[in-house]
Amino acid sequence: MCGIIGYVGAGDVVDIVHQGLINLEYRGYDSAGIAVRADGELLVEKTAGSIDAFEPPVADGATSAIGHTRWSTHGPPTERNAHPHLDCDDSIAVVHNGIIENYTELKAELEDHGFVSETDTEVVPHLIEDAFEDDPDQSLVEVVSSVTDRLEGSYAICVLRRDEDEIVATRDGSPLVLGHDEDGSFVASDVPAFLEHTREVSYLADGQVAALSADGIDVYEAGELVDLEVETVDWEPEAAQKAGYDHFMRKEIHEQPTALRQALTGRLDDEAGEVDLEVSFPDGYLDSLEEVQFVAAGTSYYAALFGARLVESLADLRASVFLASEYDGGAGRDPWRTLTVAVTQSGETKDTMDAIGVAADLGAGTLAVTNVVGSSVTRAVDQTVYIRAGPEIGVAASKSFASQVMTLAMVAIFLGRARGTLSRSAARRRIDELGSVPGAIQQVLDVEEEVRETAAEYLDAEAFFFIGREVGYPVSLEGALKLKEIAYVHAEGFAAGELKHGPLALVTEESPVLSVLTAGTAPERTRHNVAEAQARGAPAIGFVTEGLDIDQLDVAFTVPDVGWMEPLVANVYLQLFAYHVANELDRPIDKPRNLAKSVTVG
Ligand code: M6R
C-alpha cells in the first residue's frame, strides 16, 4: 500500500529514486510520481497505472528527489491524483502515505488556494505554503512540525522544497525508515526501497521529524535533536531481487527451507527440551495466564488459527483467534490474565495495530510475532518475536506463513515449558520434529513439476474446495486464499466435517476437492468427506502422509512423515498449486489486482 522513497546525496538522484519506486512496487499501487530538485527548480512527473513505462523527470545535476507509489483511497488512480502534490507556486512537493481524516475542514480553510486533485494529501503542501507566508524565516523542520500538529489520521510524509536540497520527513501511524550511506541519505516506507545502497538504517518514531541532507540525518522530537540509533539489517540486497525466478512468489516459496532454518537458529535446545525466544515476562505472569488471544488478518489469521491449536494443546491455555478488524477486546475475559498476540508479517497492518492497541489499553500483556524489524507493531507491544523470513516481496504471503507457523510452534513449546504443562521429553520430541520440517519442505519442492502438471490438468475447473481437520483446517483456508488471490478463481476452504452441512451442494465434477490428509489431523475421518465429494463426481487431490493407507484419490501427493508440523509441509503443495494455476492463466502473480502487500488503512 503506498510507497515512499526519498534521497539526497551525491549519487544518481533520479535513478536511485526511480529504482526505489520499482523496489516498492510489491506494496501495491495504481499510480506513481517523482519530484526532483535540480538547478533550483522542482521537476515533477507522474503516471497513472504501472511504472513500467514511466519516464522520470530528466534532470542533470539533480541533488534530491522524492517519489511515491499511490494506492488510491481518496480519488481514482489518475495522474492528477498521483503524488507528489504541490502548493500554488510549485515550490513545495509532498508525498504521503496514510489518510488525513480532517482534510475536508483543512481544505475549507484554504479556500484561496488552487487545488487540482481529489486527494486528502494536497492540503499538506498548501498548509506548508501558508506557514512560510506567515514566517519565511522558519526552517522546513519547524514548518512541517507545526503543520502536522494540525493533521488528524495517520501519515508518513516527505517534503521537498525548491529552495533547498534538504528533505524533511515525519510520521504518525505509517512507517518510515531512514537509510545512511556515505554518499547520501535515504528515507522510505520500507527497507527494500534502498537495500542495494545501504543496510544501515534507523526507524523513525511517531511524532519525530527527520531532516535529510547529503551529509547525514538529524532527527527532532518536540523541537529537540535526538540521538539516532543506527541498526544494520541482516537482509542481503539479493534477497529483494528475483534471482533468476520468474516471480518473487515462486522464489519465496523455494526459500522456505532456508527461512525456517533461520527461524529456528539458536532458539532450540533439544537436549534440555527448551526454546529461547529472547522474551521476558514478569515473575509468575505466564503461570497466571488463563487465555491467549491472537489478532491477525488474512494469511496471518490462518497462521494464528494454526498456532492457537498448538498453544491450547501444549500450554493448557484457552486460545482464541480474532480477525483483527473484528476485535473488540475479547469480551468477558480478564485482561490481566490474557496475553494478546499480534501476528503480522509486515508489522504495519492497520487492523492488527488497532486491535493490539485495544488489548494494550485494556491492560493485557502483548506480544508481536512479525517479520519486519522495527515495524510499528514492535513499538506497540511489550515483547516481540521475529519470524526471520527475510524480505517477502510477492503480495501473496508464502514463506512468511511458514515462518509464522514455525515461530508460533516455538511459542507454544515455550509457554508449555514455562507453565509446566509440557514435559521435557515431550518438548524434546517436538523440537526434534521441528528440525525435520525444512528438509521435508525441500522434498516437496523437488517434485514441483508434478504439481505443475496437476495444476495444468485442473485449471479450467469451475471452483476448487479445500478441506482439512484440526491444523489441516487453517491450511485449507490458506490454500484457498492463495488460489483466489493470485489466480482469480473461485476457491473456498472448509473444515472437512462441514462440507456436508451446506457446501456439498456446490460440489460437481467440475470442482476438484483438495484435502489435507496428514497423520495427526484425523485423516481417517477426512477421507470420508473426500469420498462424499467423490460420490458427487468431484475429482479428489490429496496430500497424504507417507505410509498412510489412503488409495481413493485421483491424484495423491506424499507428505514426508515428520510429525506434528506435517500440515505446514502439505501447505507447500497448495502454494505451488496456486502458483502454477495462476502462471498458466498468465496472472500478474506478484502484484494481484486490487491488493497491497501492506494494508495500512482500516
Ligand atoms: O502484514 P500482515 O501479515 O499483517 O498482512 C495481513 C494480510 O493483509 C496478508 O496476510 C494478506 O492476506 C496476504 N496478501 C495474503 O496472501
Q: What is the topology?
A:
Elements: E1 3-9, H1 13-24, E2 31-38, E3 41-48, E4 62-70, E5 85-86, E6 92-100, H2 103-109, H3 123-134, H4 140-148, E7 153-161, E8 167-172, E9 177-181, E10 184-188, E11 200-203, E12 209-213, E13 216-221, E14 224-226, E15 231-232, H5 248-254, H6 256-264, E16 268-269, E17 274-275, H7 285-288, E18 291-296, H8 298-315, E19 318-323, E20 338-344, H9 350-362, E21 365-370, H10 376-380, E22 383-386, H11 399-419, H12 424-445, H13 448-458, E23 464-468, H14 472-487, E24 491-495, E25 513-517, H15 523-534, E26 540-545, E27 555-559, H16 566-584
Parallel strand pairs: 18-19, 18-20, 20-21, 21-22, 23-24, 23-25, 25-26, 26-27
Antiparallel strand pairs: 1-4, 1-10, 2-3, 2-4, 5-6, 6-7, 7-8, 8-12, 9-10, 9-11, 11-15, 12-13, 13-14, 16-17
Helix pairs in contact: 3-4, 6-11, 6-12, 8-11, 8-14, 11-12, 12-16, 13-16, 14-16
The chain binds 5-amino-5-deoxy-1-O-phosphono-D-mannitol.
The site of 5-amino-5-deoxy-1-O-phosphono-D-mannitol has 17 residues, from α8 and α14.
Protein model, in words:
It is globular, with a radius of gyration of 25 Å. It is an alpha/beta fold. The protein folds into three domains: 3-240, Glutamine Phosphoribosylpyrophosphate, subunit 1, domain 1 (4-Layer Sandwich); 244-444, 3-Layer(aba) Sandwich (Rossmann fold), CATH 3.40.50.10490; 447-593, Rossmann fold (3-Layer(aba) Sandwich), CATH 3.40.50. The strands form five sheets. It has an eight-stranded antiparallel beta sheet, with helices on one face. Strands 5-6-7-8-12-13-14 form a seven-stranded antiparallel beta sheet.
